[in-house]
């Protein structure tokens, strides 16, 4: 065997190893990124309100459902205002809060 063949083989293995490690890192990053998008301040805030007893279980379930299936939190807020569930003042305050945070919502149980 020639020396360059041995070195070339090691270099080939190193390149393949780097490609595999890169792919694994990409998958890990994608999973974590997806988890962060689903987990957000709005869901955590809702969980805290329920835990403190500020809202009933029925309200909690309805709000969680609204946030999970209504598209973005701003779209859900628009619908609540349109249905007359909240006042204009509440709408404006919540809209500002949501716009400032721009976080996603966790729809996992």
Notes on the structure:
This protein has five helices and no strands. The model has no long low-confidence stretch (mean pLDDT 76). It has 109 residues and is mostly helical. The N and C termini lie far apart (61 Å). The protein has a domain of 62 residues.
Question: Secondary structure elements and their pairing?
Answer:
Blueprint: H1 3-38, H2 41-51, H3 57-69, H4 73-82, H5 88-101
Helix pairs in contact: 2-3, 4-5
Descriptive labels:
single chain, 109 residues, mainly alpha, 5 helices, 77% helix
Structural class: mainly alpha
Computed CA radius of gyration, to the nearest angstrom: 24 Å
Helices and strands, in order, run as: HHHHH
Fraction in helix = over 70%
The biggest beta sheet reads: none
Low-confidence stretches: none
Number of helices: 5
Distance between the termini: 61 Å
**Percent of residues in beta strands:** under 5%
Give the strand tally: 0
Quote the average pLDDT: 76
Gross morphology: elongated
Give a quick summary of the entry.
77% of the residues lie in helices and 0% in strands. With 109 residues, it is an all-alpha fold.
